[in-house]
Amino acid sequence: MYATQAVTQLVPLAKELDENKVTPGVLGFIVFAVMACAVWLLMKSMNRHMGKVDFKETPADATDPTKAPAAGPTT
After folding, report:
1. Residues sharing a CB contact under 8 Å with residue 24, sequence separation 6 or more, in sequence order
2. 57 pLDDT more than 90
3. Cα dihedral sign for 32, 34, 36, 39?
4. pTM score, two decimals?
5. Which of 42, 49, 60, 64 has a C-alpha 20 to 30 A away from that of 31?
C-alpha cells in the first residue's frame, strides 16, 4: 500500500522534468572512460603480479634436512 502511494506522488514530479536535460552528457562519458581505463590498468597490473607468484609448496621438513624436530622437555 505504501509503495503505490509513493509512486502516485512521484509520477507528477517526473512529468515536470525536461527529458533533454536529464542526460549524463560529455562529463558522464569522460568519468566512465577514466574509470574503465583505471580498471583495465589495475587488471593488467594484477595479471602481471599474479604471474610472478609461485604456487608450488614445499613440505616443511624438506626445506632443511639438517634440522631435527625439537625435543620435548625431559624431567
Report:
1. 32
2. no
3. negative
4. 0.46
5. 49
